[in-house]
Design a protein that fits this description.
This protein has four helices and five strands, in the order βαβαβαββα. It is an alpha/beta fold. The protein has a single domain, classed as 3-Layer(aba) Sandwich (Glutaredoxin). Helix 2 packs parallel to helix 4. The longest helix is centred in the middle third of the chain and has 17 residues. The protein is globular, with a radius of gyration of 12 Å.
Length: 110
């Protein structure tokens, strides 16, 4: 299951959370984002386990928050550990294959 983030819960669910948090940053009208979404949902089901959390944030509804996290292009899939961003895949690098590889890497660390 993917938890939908917004301005109200982002800090608590990502910046103040322990463990590894994946955040799928997407926007309204972003075609690559829409193509990635079902794959990301599938990864969340496949790789879900204690210590890994899958979330998403619609940057169209939270522009300032996205900018505060240095999200300048879409799609972005970022990994946070104990509130700190440790890795991200941006735009053309955010393919389903690359995202799955990144998830596997952190999945094995938990």
């Amino acid at each position: 299951m993917v938890l939908e983030l917004d301005r109200k819960n982002f800090d608590a669910e990502v910046l103040e959370a322990e463990g590894y948090i994946f955040v799928d940053y997407y926007g309204d009208g972003c075609v690559p984002c829409a193509a990635l979404a079902p794959k990301y949902e599938g990864f969340a089901e496949t790789y879900a386990k204690e210590g890994l959390k899958f979330t998403s944030l619609n940057t169209s509804k939270a522009r300032r928050l996205a900018i505060s996290q240095q999200i300048m292009g879409l799609p972005v899939v970022a990994v946070y550990k104990d509130g700190q961003k440790v890795e991200e895949l941006v735009k053309d690098d955010a393919t389903a294959e690359a995202v799955e590889e990144m998830i596997k890497k952190y999945h094995d660390m938990v």
